[in-house]
Design a protein that fits this description.
It is a single chain. The chain folds into two domains: 145 residues, 2-Layer Sandwich (Beta Polymerase, domain 2); 124 residues, no CATH class. The protein has eleven helices and nine strands. The chain is globular, with a radius of gyration of 19 Å. The model has no long low-confidence stretch (mean pLDDT 90).
Amino acid sequence: MIPEPQLMYLLELLNALGPAADDFVIAGAQAMKFIVDHARATRDFDFVLDVVGLRGEDLSVRTKLHELGYVVVEGSQNFQFEKPIPTSKEKMRIEFMAPEEFKRPKDFRVDIDEGVHARSCVGGSIAVAESTQHQLSGRLPDGSPFKTLIRPHALVMLKLLALDDRYRNIRGPRESRHDREEARTHAADIISIVRVQLDPEKFRRDFREQFHGDQDLGLRVEGIVNSYFRERTSAGFLVYEEFLVADRPIDREIRFEIEREIEAAHRIMIQVVLPSF
């Protein structure tokens, strides 16, 4: 689960937001910790914001962040914030995303408050709608429920879009190495989430039905699934293999182990995700 001391400061933030905390949906690797045992380690928090809900709240996000000691991460264009954690070398870092339909004209940012932006996110509205409540407790007295993570099928949807974005390296040659590393991570995350679904039929149904209000996005995601996971040699499995071999000495036994894992992952994706379309 979420480690200390980050858990304490997550609860501090949500406690300060009060009812508006319901408009902050945890996504990304932190959400995976509620879905997958031994999820990859991360200490940063990604939030998909319910822009409509926030605009109805009597709250200044900027003021709350300032009161809690957060400052803008340099170069982030006001959608990443961090604060030092007392008596520690670590920092608490948060990033805001929001549905792309609220973004500025000819800009990727969504205005949240004066000096507070969110990065536009394809599928963000679905992520907000397909969220669920989870109880967290920590050192703060208020352990009340709040929207903490998007449901597995919606998280897979966002990660498929991110995989496609990073694999195609749309940000250009200067970001090619970082994008390739991110593509590997997203592919591994997708397979990890799908693998632990105890009710594959329900996952398939939920994955398909989340697009009932956005058929164009559904078709786009369908194309990504087919392009990256239809065949054993599809791009998604190629970058997953790169993820598996990273920083490992490769001998005959390890090679056979990786080949077995790729075959197993292919069977899982074919059985659980691809029939959705």
